[in-house]
Amino acid sequence: MTIYTYTESTNIDSTAPVPVVCEGQNVFTYNRVYSNKLKKILDAALDFRYFVQYDVHDLQGEQLFTIKKYARKRRIIYNARDKEMKFLISYDGQFVMIPELHIHREDGMKMELHKNIDDWSIFKDATTEYARWNSAFDEQTETFQMTLEVMQEHPVMTPAHYIGIAQMTLFIGG
Question: Residue ranges of the Tubby C-terminal domain (predicted)?
Answer without folding.
Answer: 4-172
